C-alpha cells in the first residue's frame, strides 16, 4: 500500500461514488428508502368502505347538526324557563323582606314624629325583618346588599328608640336599603324571552313592586308628617314626587297585566281602608301652604297598612302566575327536548343501518377481490419475481402454471359485472407483471454483469498501472520526475478504490489478498493514501493493534470512504482526525474519524445508520438504488463483508461536525508479534474524553435499536 506521496484532486469520479457526502449520489449523509413491498395499508377513508361511509356520513352529520341546533334551542328554552322560575322565587323572597322593611320604615318614621303608640308594633316588625334577613343569608347578592346598606340597622334602631335619630336621615336610610334590594331583584331588569305571556308577567311584577314601594314610602312619609301636624321644608314636594311615581308605575302595570291581575289591583284600591287612605291623601294635598293637619296618624297608618298588604297579596298572586307559567314552559321544553332527542336518534340509527347494509353489499365482493389482489401482490407475484431474478436460466422459461393462476370470479362473491371486469383486469395485470419481471431480470442481470466486468477490467488495468509506476519510481533518479511519478501513483491508488467500490456494490468483488496481518497504524495510513487531501488528515492517536490479513483491505477501503467523506464536508482549513483504541472490556478495537464540518440531521443519521447495517443484494443495490445513496451502500457492504460484530456508527462532533466510528470485533484482530512489547503509554486526557463520548454514543445507539446496533 502506498502512503507516502500526494496526488492531485481526482477530476473524474465514477457515477457509483457520486458527489454527495460520499460523492454525488453516494453520500452517507443522504438517505432514502423504498416502501416495504407487500405491506397492506390499513383501511381508511381511501377504501371503498371508507368512501361509502363518507358519502353516508356527510348527510348524517348535516342531519345531526340540524337536530343538534334544534336540541340546543330546546335546551336553552328549558334552561331559560328554569332560570326564570328560580328568579321569580328569589324575587318573591326579596319582596317579602322589602315588605317588612317598608313596614319598619313607616313605624319608625311615625315614632320619630312623636307617636309613642307605634313602639309596640315596631318591635314585632323588627323581629320579622330579622327573621327575613336570616333567611336570605344564602343569597350572595342579597348578603352583599345587607353588608353594604343594612350594616347600620342596629344603630339606626337604637337611635330611633332614644329619639335622637333624624327623621329625614332615617327615612333615607330605609329607602336606600329598599332601593338596593330592588336593584338585586332578578325581575327588576328588563324581561326578555320568546314567550310573551312570561315576558309580560315579569314586567307586571316589576311595575307592581315599584308601585307598592311608592305606596309604602308614602305611608311612612305621611305617618311622620301627620305625627308632626304639618309639612315642613321640602316634605310636600317629596310627597308629590312619591305620588307621581306610584301613578306612573300603576299605569305601566295596567298596560302589561292580565284582566284578572288588573281586577285584583282595582279590588285592592276599592276597600274601605283604601278609600279612607285616599281621603287622608286629599287632606294632605290641601296643606301645601304648611297649614296644620288634623289627621290621626294611627288611623292613617292602619288604613295604608291594609292597602300595602293588599298590594303585596296582588304581587304574590302575579308572582305565582309567572312561576306557574315558567313551570309550564319548563315542562313543555323538557317534552320537546326529549322528542327531539328520540327522533334524532331514531333517524340517525335508521340512516346508519341503511348505510351499513348498502356498504356491506358493495364491499363484500370487493373485499374478496382485494384479498386476492393482496395475495398476488404480497405472495404469488413477489415469489415468482424472486425466482425469476435468482435463477440463472432464461427468464422467459420460468413462468409456471401457478404463476398464471386465475383470480376468482367476482360474481361468485355477489358482486356486479363491473367487479368481474376488475377481476379479469387484475389477472391480466398479473400476467403482464410476470412477463415484465422476466424481461427486467434479464436486463438487470446483463447490466450488472456488464458493469462488474467493466469494473474488473478497470481494476486489472489500474493494478498493472501501479506495477508499472512502481518500477519507474525505482529506476527514476530525477527528483522532479520522481515527484510526478508519486502523483500518478497516488492518483492510480484512488482510481483502484473507485473501481473496487463499484465491484463492492455489484456484490462480485472478492477482498484484496493480504498475506499477513498488518499493524493498525499501517491500515490507517493506507486509507489516508487513498484520499485526495491527505495532508489535512491528522492521525492523532492510534493504539497498537494487528488486523488479520483477510480484513486489512476492506478495513482500509472503508476507512478511506469515511475519511474522504469528512474531508469533503469540512472547511478547507480544518483537519480531519483519526483515533484508534482498544477496549479490553468488549474485546473491540475502534477507529474514529472526526471532522468539524456541516454535520447531519438526526433523521439523516438514522437513515445512514440503517444503510450501514443493511446487507441487501449487491446487484439490486447497484441497479435499483438511487445514485445519491451508493456511498452508504459501499460502507454498509464493506462492514457486512467484515462479518458479525463489525459496526459503523455516526455521532455529532462536540463544537460542530460529524464523527464516524468503526468498531472491529476481536475475531478480526491478530495477536501481537512480540508478546514482550510493553503496553502503550497512558492516553491523554483529551483523547480519553473523546473515547468516553464515543462509548456513550454507542451505548445510546444500542439502547435505541439493539437489533440494528448488533447487526
Commentary on this structure:
There is one protein chain. This protein is mainly alpha-helical and 711 residues long. The chain contains 19 helices and 8 strands. The protein has helices at residues 48-112, 119-135, 140-149, 153-162, 167-183, 196-228, 235-256, 259-268, 272-285, 297-390, 417-475, 479-506, 520-529, 549-568, 602-612, 618-624, 630-642, 685-704, 706-709; strands at 518-519, 537-542, 546-547, 576-583, 588-594, 647-652, 658-665, 669-670. β6 and β7 form a beta hairpin. α8 packs antiparallel against α10. The longest helix is centred in the middle third of the chain and has 94 residues, at 297-390. The two termini are 30 Å apart. Pfam families: HATPase_c, NIT.
Summarize the structure.
It catalyses: ATP + protein L-histidine = ADP + protein N-phospho-L-histidine. The protein has 711 residues and is mainly alpha-helical. α3 runs antiparallel to α5.
Amino acid at each position: 500500500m502506498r502512503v507516502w506521496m500526494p496526488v492531485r484532486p481526482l477530476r473524474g469520479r465514477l457515477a457509483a461514488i457520486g458527489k454527495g457526502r460520499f460523492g454525488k449520489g453516494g453520500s452517507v449523509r443522504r438517505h432514502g428508502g423504498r416502501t416495504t413491498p407487500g405491506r397492506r395499508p390499513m383501511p381508511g377513508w381511501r377504501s371503498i368502505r371508507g368512501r361509502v361511509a363518507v358519502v353516508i356520513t356527510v348527510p348524517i352529520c348535516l342531519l345531526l347538526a340540524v337536530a343538534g341546533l334544534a336540541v340546543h334551542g330546546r335546551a336553552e328554552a328549558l334552561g331559560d324557563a328554569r332560570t326564570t322560575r328560580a328568579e321569580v322565587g328569589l324575587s318573591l323572597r326579596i319582596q317579602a323582606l322589602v315588605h317588612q322593611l317598608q313596614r319598619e320604615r313607616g313605624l319608625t318614621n311615625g315614632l320619630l314624629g312623636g307617636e309613642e303608640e307605634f313602639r309596640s308594633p315596631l318591635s314585632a316588625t323588627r323581629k320579622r325583618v330579622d327573621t327575613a334577613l336570616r333567611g336570605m343569608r344564602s343569597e350572595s347578592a342579597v348578603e352583599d346588599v345587607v353588608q353594604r346598606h343594612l350594616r347600620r340597622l342596629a344603630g339606626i334602631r337604637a337611635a330611633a328608640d332614644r329619639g335622637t335619630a333624624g327623621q329625614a336621615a332615617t327615612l333615607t336610610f330605609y329607602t336606600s336599603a329598599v332601593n338596593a334590594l330592588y336593584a338585586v331583584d332578578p325581575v327588576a331588569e328588563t324581561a326578555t324571552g320568546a314567550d310573551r305571556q312570561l315576558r309580560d308577567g315579569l314586567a307586571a311584577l316589576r311595575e307592581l313592586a315599584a308601585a307598592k314601594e311608592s305606596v309604602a314610602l308614602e305611608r311612612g312619609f305621611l305617618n311622620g308628617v301627620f305625627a308632626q301636624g304639618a309639612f315642613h321644608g321640602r316634605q310636600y314636594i317629596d310627597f308629590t314626587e312619591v305620588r307621581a311615581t306610584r301613578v306612573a308605575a300603576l299605569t305601566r302595570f295596567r298596560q302589561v297585566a292580565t284582566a284578572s291581575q288588573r281586577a285584583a289591583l282595582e279590588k285592592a284600591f276599592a276597600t274601605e281602608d283604601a278609600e279612607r287612605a285616599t281621603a287622608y291623601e286629599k287632606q294632605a294635598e290641601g296643606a301645601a301652604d304648611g297649614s296644620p293637619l288634623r289627621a290621626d296618624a294611627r288611623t292613617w297608618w292602619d288604613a295604608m297598612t291594609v292597602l300595602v298588604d293588599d298590594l303585596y297579596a296582588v304581587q304574590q298572586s302575579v308572582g305565582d302566575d309567572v312561576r306557574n307559567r315558567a313551570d309550564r314552559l319548563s315542562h313543555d321544553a323538557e317534552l320537546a327536548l326529549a322528542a327531539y332527542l328520540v327522533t334524532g336518534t331514531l333517524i340517525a340509527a335508521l340512516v346508519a343501518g341503511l348505510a351499513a347494509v348498502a356498504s356491506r353489499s358493495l364491499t363484500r365482493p370487493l373485499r374478496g377481490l382485494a384479498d386476492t389482489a393482496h395475495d398476488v401482490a404480497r405472495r404469488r407475484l413477489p415469489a415468482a419475481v424472486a425466482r425469476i431474478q435468482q435463477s440463472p436460466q432464461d427468464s422467459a422459461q420460468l413462468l409456471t402454471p401457478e404463476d398464471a393462476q386465475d383470480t376468482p370470479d367476482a360474481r361468485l362473491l355477489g358482486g356486479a359485472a363491473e367487479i368481474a371486469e376488475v377481476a379479469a383486469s387484475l389477472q391480466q395485470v398479473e400476467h403482464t407483471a410476470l412477463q415484465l419481471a422476466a424481461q427486467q431480470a434479464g436486463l438487470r442481470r446483463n447490466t450488472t454483469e456488464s458493469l462488474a466486468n467493466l469494473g474488473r477490467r478497470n481494476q486489472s488495468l489500474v493494478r498493472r498501472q501501479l506495477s508499472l509506476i512502481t518500477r519507474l519510481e525505482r529506476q527514476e533518479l530525477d527528483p522532479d520526475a520522481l515527484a510526478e511519478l508519486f502523483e500518478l501513483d497516488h492518483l492510480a491508488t484512488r482510481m483502484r478504490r473507485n473501481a473496487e467500490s463499484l465491484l463492492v456494490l455489484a456484490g462480485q468483488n472478492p477482498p484484496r489478498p493480504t498475506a499477513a496481518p498488518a499493524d493498525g497504524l499501517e491500515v490507517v495510513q493506507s486509507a489516508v493514501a487513498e484520499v485526495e487531501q491527505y495532508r489535512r488528515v491528522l492521525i492523532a492517536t492510534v493504539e497498537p493493534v494487528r488486523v488479520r490479513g483477510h480484513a486489512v483491505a476492506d478495513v482500509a477501503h472503508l476507512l478511506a470512504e469515511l475519511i474522504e467523506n469528512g474531508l469533503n464536508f469540512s472547511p478547507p482549513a480544518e483537519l480531519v482526525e483519526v483515533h484508534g483504541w482498544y477496549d479490553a472490556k468488549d474485546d473491540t478495537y475502534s477507529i474514529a474519524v472526526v471532522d468539524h464540518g456541516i454535520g447531519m440531521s438526526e433523521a439523516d443519521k438514522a437513515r445512514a445508520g440503517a444503510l450501514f447495517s443493511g446487507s441487501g443484494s449487491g446487484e439490486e443495490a447497484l441497479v435499483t438504488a438511487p445514485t445519491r445513496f451508493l456511498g452508504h451502500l459501499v460502507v454498509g457492504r464493506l462492514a457486512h463483508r467484515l462479518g458479525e460484530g463489525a459496526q459503523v456508527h455516526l455521532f455529532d462532533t462536540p463544537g460542530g461536525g460529524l464523527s464516524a466510528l468503526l468498531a472491529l470485533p476481536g475475531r478480526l484482530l491478530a495477536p501481537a508479534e512480540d508478546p514482550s512489547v510493553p503496553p502503550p503509554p497512558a492516553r491523554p486526557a483529551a483523547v480519553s474524553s473523546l473515547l468516553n463520548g464515543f462509548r456513550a454514543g454507542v451505548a445510546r445507539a444500542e439502547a435505541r435499536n439493539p437489533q440494528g446496533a448488533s447487526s
